[in-house]
Design goal:
The complex is a heterodimer.
Chain A: E1 4-5, E2 11-13, E3 18-22, E4 30-36, E5 40-43, E6 48-54, E7 58-65, E8 68-70, H1 76-93, H2 100-103, E9 110-114, E10 120-125, H3 127-137, E11 152-153, H4 155-161, H5 172-177, E12 186-187, H6 191-197, H7 202-207
Antiparallel strand pairs in A: 1-8, 2-5, 3-4, 3-8, 4-6, 6-7, 9-10, 11-12
Chain B: H1 2-5, E1 16-20, H2 27-47, E2 51-55, H3 72-84, H4 90-100, H5 107-124, H6 130-146, H7 149-159, H8 170-186, H9 196-209, H10 212-215, H11 220-233, H12 239-247, H13 252-272, H14 279-289
Parallel strand pairs in B: 1-2
The chains are: A alpha+beta, B mainly alpha.
Chain lengths: 231, 298
């Protein structure tokens, strides 16, 4: 099933499908991603859905309304594999509630904190990074995430993506900590890329990582210069 | 600097910031206090909080600094100093333990930290307070990552050993086994069966949890997966048996995960092992990675 916006008709959501929330400041701009926490045979717009997500911090019992849903038709085995990945990461991230900013990373979408001998102490994810890596654990590589595979984005776009951090993103050292040093633009995995990656036939999603282009931060994607529809 | 240290700022409509500082003879201390004060002013404005009171003469640890402004080295020193204090409030100790996990401790600071982490783990590992166990998990990760390999693996073996009739909490088993794999990946043991006590504990976990009825339950799969990989990486001599057991397990989704992780570890090991010192480990990882071949698939 290709990705879809939740409209006036109820849709079915399966556990660990990707659910997306629009950014509060920009209609159609995907602001947040999560994994559905349970099956919902009939989900209606604006209903609250239990989710697993990297807010931050990572939450097993989180909740958010879904504006878009993308599904690759996970098998029961794939769901178990993603669940195991979550079990490993969850315990690691419970500690991060006291330090949410250090837990988060914008670029790359996954980062490891290491000691001098190169032992990994803990990992940091962006919300999109968490979803991408969870699916990769089940061998579903939906999106090409190499630096050369990604369109570059400017600070204003990142502020739309991360409204909670918007003012902090003006802080140069904080940007460095989040993996986006200097003034940009930067190759960053945005949440909308994942939804657009899932807007393909299931066999294609499973066989070919999607290469995002500018405009894919929206769903449906927009061409450069296309303006936002009014609410 | 002097004027700022003596400053008492009252912002009645916006955030209220009150700063009172002691005069100090040491210019470096004054400079540090100036930047502390400026940082808190900026933070207060940014947070738009109703009140933020800073009194630099207090001897309690400061609030966690704005992460962007904290100097990591001096914060590491502060954390070691504060954790040494017996009278430190329990909540503050938990916060500092959690913060220490993401700071770059090195050299003498790292050596001092591991002693403090171990003391904390020993004192709180049997706590039934969730916040304590979260901090114990963080302390375990940090301890295993920061300590020397001998210390880390001795501690891991000890943590996986049940104390009396009390079982080891699953949450701690996940942390310990995961960190054992990470530490062994970064530091492959040069000799065979160097960590026999740890290998025995890991083998017990594989025996107990790598069973079809348990693997689908929350957390058991993660412990079993890491115990299997850890057992191979310890070069304990028990690895051939593990590979055979995994082949016979009959749980395709779990076998696939073992195969993928083993394949990744094998490539990583081979890339760093120019003299083929760990060829035996690479061979067993190779056998595990074949579990995902079509004949073993779902």
């Amino acid at each position: 099933m290709p990705a879809q916006r939740v409209g006036s008709t109820a849709i079915a959501i399966r556990r660990l499908d990707v659910v997306a929330q629009d950014a509060s400041s920009e209609p159609g701009f995907i602001g947040h991603l999560a994994l559905a926490g349970e099956d919902r045979p009939s989900y209606e717009a604006s209903a609250v859905l239990p989710v697993l997500h990297m807010r931050p911090p990572l939450e097993r019992a989180g909740e958010c309304p879904a504006n878009c849903v993308g599904s690759v038709g996970l098998t029961a085995d794939e769901q178990l594999q993603i669940g195991l990945f979550y079990d490993e990461v969850e315990s690691e991230y419970q500690a991060a509630r006291a330090r949410p900013v250090q837990q988060y990373v914008i670029s790359p979408h996954i980062d490891e904190i290491r000691r001098e001998d190169q032992t990994v102490v803990c990992r940091r994810f962006s919300c999109a990074g968490f979803v991408i890596e969870a699916y990769r654990e089940a061998r579903i590589d939906m999106l090409a995430t190499g630096r050369d595979d990604l369109p570059v984005v400017c600070l204003d776009t990142l502020k739309t993506q991360y409204p909670v951090f918007a003012r902090n993103l003006d802080h140069l050292r904080l940007r460095e900590q989040l993996g986006i040093p200097g003034d940009g633009p930067w190759p960053v995995v945005l949440a909308g890329y994942v939804v657009n990656a899932l807007n393909r036939p299931e066999t294609v999603i499973r066989s070919t990582p999607y290469r995002a282009i500018a405009g894919d931060e929206f769903f449906p994607p927009r061409q450069r210069g296309e303006s936002s529809p009014s609410r | 600097v002097r004027s700022l240290l003596a400053l008492r700022v009252q912002l009645t409509t916006e955030p209220r910031v009150e700063i009172s500082g002691r005069e100090r003879a040491d210019p470096a201390s004054r400079r540090r206090e100036f930047f502390e004060a400026a940082r808190y002013l900026a933070l207060a404005k940014e947070k738009n909080s109703s009140a933020l009171i800073l009194n630099s003469s207090e001897r309690t640890p400061p609030d966690p600094p704005h992460p962007a402004d904290a100097d990591p080295d001096s914060r590491c020193a502060e954390i070691v100093e504060f954790l040494h204090r017996r009278g430190l409030a329990h909540d503050e100790r938990l916060k500092l333990i959690l913060e220490a996990e993401v700071l770059p401790f090195r050299g003498q600071q790292a050596a001092a930290l591991v002693l403090l982490l171990w003391r904390f783990i020993e004192e709180h590992r049997e706590s039934n307070v969730p916040a304590d166990l979260v901090a114990v998990g963080s302390a375990i990760r940090n301890y295993v990552a920061t300590a020397t390999t001998d210390e880390a693996f001795a501690a891991a073996a000890s943590l996986l050993q049940a104390q009396g009739r009390l079982p080891v909490p699953l949450e701690l088993e996940v942390e310990v086994t995961k960190m054992v794999v990470r530490k062994l990946t970064a530091n492959p043991p040069p000799g065979r069966d160097q960590y026999s006590e740890l290998a025995r504990r890991l083998e017990e976990l594989v025996d107990a949890y790598a069973r079809p009825r348990l693997l689908t339950r929350e957390t058991y799969g993660a412990i079993a997966l890491n115990a299997i990989l850890g057992l191979v990486l310890t070069r304990s001599g028990r690895d051939q048996e593990v590979a055979e057991r995994m082949r016979a397990l009959g749980v395709p989704w779990f076998q696939q995960l073992v195969a993928r992780r083993a394949a990744r570890l094998r490539s990583d090991l081979i890339a760093r092992d120019s003299n083929a010192k760990f060829a035996d480990t690479a061979r067993v990882l190779g056998q595990l990675s074949e579990l995902e071949s079509p004949s073993h698939g779902s």
